Amino acid sequence: MTAPVRVGDPATVNVALGERSYDIVIGRGVMASLGSRARALRGGAKAAIVTDHIVARLHLDAAEAALAAGGMASSRVVVAAGEGTKSYAGLERVCEALIAARLERGDLVVALGGGVVGDLAGFAAAIVRRGLDCIQVPTTLLAQVDSAVGGKTAINSSEGKNLIGAFHQPRLVLADTAALDTLPVRQFRAGYAEVVKYALLGDAGFFAWLEADLEDVFAAAGAGGGAAREHAIATSCRMKAAIVARDERESGERALLNLGHTFGHALEAAAGFSDRLLHGEAVALGIALAAEFSVRLGVLASEAAARAIGHLGRAGLPVRLDEVAGDWPDVDALLDLMAQDKKVKRGKLNLILLRDIGHAYIAPDIDPAPLRAFLVEKLKPR
Ligand SMILES: NC(=O)c1ccc[n+]([C@@H]2O[C@H](COP(=O)([O-])OP(=O)(O)OC[C@H]3O[C@@H](n4cnc5c(N)ncnc54)[C@H](O)[C@@H]3O)[C@@H](O)[C@H]2O)c1
Ligand SMILES: [Zn+2]
User: Fold this and answer.
1) CA–CA separation, 279 vs 130, rounded Å?
2) Mean pLDDT confidence for 315-330
3) pLDDT reported for residue 4
């Protein structure tokens, strides 16, 4: 698989969900088309842009100007940046602000930011006036390849992440790759873990391309990164769109997108959802653990696991627990946290495991004893 050599027209990926179908438009500078695209969707509507205080400083003016250029009036709702905002209090703030801005059915919520803003604003849009339309304008790599696509929205409960939410598909996703120019490299890297996840779960050719083109995906646009970056994002979106179209509500195949996430969510919770461990970093660790556990169960060749883990490591992502500063809880606490994951069905733990590079599968009803022994070993300092 080769990437296009130059940055050309934006790539469009359709999420085929019948009358709720929508486009993901990916390209450098596509933010400028926000107003005309919003007007095409909802002529005569008004919009409220929900964003966080960091993204507001960097990209809010451009988003407002783009809406104005399309003749659409807008108001702004700025929340504090960070996972803590995905809370009841954060949700209340956004809902009240949308109501105060007089948004009616048919008006538009524009979620401008990373996954935190996307999940929070998307959920508010799902419930204010029993449903407002939403446009996702993701500004982190993680949001562009993952959270803005597929309609899952949520806030966190004190019991765990994303436990209160709704399925609410956006009407449009506008992924401006130029927005990533301002993203700190640690955040970019964390989003890259999700890109690797797609390759590992379903596309060995894409994985080989990532191995060959890693530097170009990370390079700044001026240094040749533009086309490779867009290719990585569009390929990831295409994979997620196809899976979501076949299994919107996660009754089966969509669970594959959780590769690395049952381990990862437990680690994130253990780290207190803090800067100590970003979501994508937890996913990288989780993928490494899933690969190693797959080897342990005899379903994955150790060379394939080494290749997957080696690539994550080359991208600068953590792949061993002792690479993260600070202590981890003991194995029982970790298993408890894994059992809190939404993917647990009637007390049985399902894991997404690997048979090969590009081939993940749902392993239902994991036997706790070998998993426990495996984790005890991984928790030992080396
Ligand atoms: N709904 C889903 O399907 C889904 C999927 C994966 C993750 N998520 C959720 O997404 C969240 C994580 O998203 P995230 O990693 O984007 O985190 P985030 O939204 O917290 O963004 C990370 C940081 O980058 C800043 N930022 C955003 N865009 C920027 C830019 N262009 N330039 C500079 N700084 C910028 C933000 O202000 C924040 O400080 C988690 O809450 C996770 O649960 C949801
Ligand atoms: Zn994720």
Assistant:
1) 30
2) 95
3) 46
- When pLDDT is cut at 50, 70 and 90, the band that residue 160 belongs to is confident
203-to-208, 238, 311, 351 alpha-carbon distances in Å: 9, 11, 15, 19
Is 152 assigned a catalytic role?
yes
> How does DSSP classify residue 249?
T
CB of residue 79 inside a 6 A radius of ligand 1: no
Provide the β-strand partners of residue 345. Answer: 348
Task: State yes or no: is 359 an active-site residue.
Answer: no
| Least confident residue range of 38-42, 175-179, 248-252 | 248-252
Looking at the DSSP bridge assignments, the partners of residue 351 are 363
Q: Is residue 314 among the annotated active site residues?
A: no
Using CA atoms, how far apart are residues 257 and 259, in angstroms rounded to an integer? 5
Q: Across the chain, what does the average pLDDT equal?
A: 94
The ligand that comes nearest to the alpha carbon of residue 126 is 1
- The residue annotated as part of the active site, out of 64, 83, 230, 250, is 250
